[in-house]
User: What shape does this take?
Amino acid sequence: MELLTAAEMSAAERTDIEAGRVTGAELMARAGAGTVDAVLAKWPDLAAGAHRAVVLCGPGNNGGDGFVVARLLAARGWTIDLYLLGRADALPPDARANHDLWRERGEVRALEDAAIAPPAVDGEVLWIDALFGTGLSRPFTLSAVARQLGAAARDPETRVVAIDMPSGWCSDSGRWLGDAAPEARTAADLTVTFHRRKAGHILSDGPTACGQLARVDIGLEAATAPGARPARLVEPDTLAAVSKRPGHKYDHGHALVLTGGAGRTGAARLSARAALRIGAGLVTLGVPGAAQLEVAMHETAVMLRRVDDAEALDTALEDPRLNSLCLGPGLGSERAHALVPAALASGRATVLDADALTAFADAPDRLFSKLHARCVLTPHMGEFARLFPDIAEDLKRTPESGPAASRIDAARAASVRCGAVVLLKGADTVIAAPDGRVLVNAAVYERSVPWLATAGAGDTLAGLIAGLLARGIAPLEAAGTGAWLHVECARRFGPGLIAEDLCGMLPGVLRELGV
Ligand SMILES: NC(=O)C1=CN([C@@H]2O[C@H](COP(=O)(O)OP(=O)(O)OC[C@H]3O[C@@H](n4cnc5c(N)ncnc54)[C@H](O)[C@@H]3O)[C@@H](O)[C@H]2O)[C@@H](O)CC1
Ligand SMILES: [K+]
Assistant: This one.
């Protein structure tokens, strides 16, 4: 399923409207009705009886959706207090029409920057945030209102529904525009979006701001604009095929994982086991002489080969069956400088992680000039910032206008610059290929696994990807599938997880996938 930007969403709408398949007014009516349905599905107690809502409408079509919701709730007998930011005669046409329909039955008050005191009633007030959606173009300046919505969302007794996006949050990036303190930012218990999820629902702080996400179909046929290449979520039905065809072990590839020196081999051993578990036919650890005994004592199914230097690696790579390499976990800077160029010169599918990335922080171009399209870089944000400092800076700087630079933009720019697949780790892992394709593995909402932030988890991910590459899966798909499986393993284990536990979960995850 695609994750759209505001521009991609409005292009999809335009495509269907211009083709005469639907009108803007119909889309707005469906968006409002879908919002009410989603509210009643989340809180069934609101379906019976009359309740009270405060509806905050903004100056664009997000506000238009708010007028529709107000009308539908009033028709159910609810009492509505509706506030409008800006002038009715400046509303765009569809929003204006819904404003006029609302005016036939209810009041419109002017929204000012003061806390709103909903009249005391029995039972709770439902807040509807219809101020800004995909059209947010500058910081949200009503700080008293923002504080009030944020506090209401954090209060377990009070319910806040955001239409399309909690207002003030950028729907492309999941970032707050401007520099308001966290308690002066809006939030919601439920965010209802239309057609497709927007990137900002998944990226950065978006999930925390949105609370829970509901997606409503509004009957758009055009998934996106023709020719657009939006980011896609990794989901079970988009995973690369991980089932093994019958065959000899050599049919499933041979991964070589390079270790660091004595006392520093644990990380690479985690990678090697992951590569084996995900189905590489053979996995060898390339070990310096001084660490041979240590590795031999720990490993059984993983093979061992002495690789002291670049020359030894060249010799090992004379075996054409070695088709995937993994360098970085525990490798150490010196070995990284010696072995990474030799690995890259072989043209093999290669995962570079950890030390294999930071070793080149002084001169990233020296690394980039050797990379090729079958390489996958797996930096976390700190490693990313060392290799791509200017791109990382765009993500750090407070955005003053929308849409703000997103982690998708960052990974895409980095991948184009270095010519390899870049997997930027996080709860919102973004994986970009140099041709512009982007996958997002979302460990947010019901897939949230904060316990996966544990020592060695990244080494396991690098190994999973190396194993999938060994099995002949293309780099972008291998990285996306590896990231998805990694999170599923963590979900299956639950809190208390340590990196050694991850691989043991894989057979169960694969079984559930029907593999
Ligand atoms: N266009 C369509 O066909 C549909 C749009 N829908 C709704 O329309 C929304 C998008 O509508 P719009 O493109 O009109 O955008 P918005 O309604 O999100 O906001 C745009 C308006 O807000 C102003 N604005 C932006 N940032 C501001 C700020 N910080 N302070 C004050 N004013 C600010 C802009 O100048 C513009 O007037 C979606 O999020 C969705 O809720 C839905 O009705 C579904 C169909
Ligand atoms: K909103």
